[in-house]
């Protein structure tokens, strides 16, 4: 993360129940989570201590952009450039679920 950034980081404990991510939020994988490619499955996976989550293509595409630099709006925009339609609400719901599981951290934009 950029040391000059003055935004705050939220995890599930800092996010009110039912609150989603905003367009200016900058999601990134939590420190204990890693995105990797599984040669056996020929798919991207999310590695969490004692857990492996096999991602579908759209989930992997979203998480590849969760680097703490891209805002949620920029992620949706980038995906929209790659594909014809990208439901912004579905991207936000996906990110919100991962924040609730503490697999993503969100920095306020």
UniProtKB/TrEMBL annotation:
Keywords: PQQ biosynthesis
InterPro entries in alphabetical order: PQQD, PqqD_bac, PqqD_sf
Biased composition (Low complexity): 1-19
Protein origin, superkingdom: Bacteria
Annotated spans, Disordered: 1-26
Pathway connected to this protein: Cofactor biosynthesis; pyrroloquinoline quinone biosynthesis
Pfam families in UniProt: PqqD
Complex and partners: Monomer. Interacts with PqqE.
Record-linked NCBIfam families: PQQ_PqqD
Name this protein carries in UniProt: Pyrroloquinoline quinone biosynthesis peptide chaperone PqqD
């Amino acid at each position: 993360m950029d040391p000059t950034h003055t935004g705050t980081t939220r995890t599930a404990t800092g996010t009110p129940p039912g609150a989603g991510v905003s367009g200016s939020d900058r999601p990134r994988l939590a420190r204990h989570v890693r995105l990797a490619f599984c040669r056996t499955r020929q798919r991207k996976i999310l590695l969490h201590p004692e857990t492996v989550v096999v991602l579908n293509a759209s989930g992997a595409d979203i998480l590849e952009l969760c680097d703490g630099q891209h805002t949620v709006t920029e992620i949706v925009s980038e995906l929209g450039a790659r594909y014809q339609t990208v439901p912004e609400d579905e991207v936000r719901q996906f990110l919100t679920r991962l924040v609730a599981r503490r697999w993503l951290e969100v920095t306020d934009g």
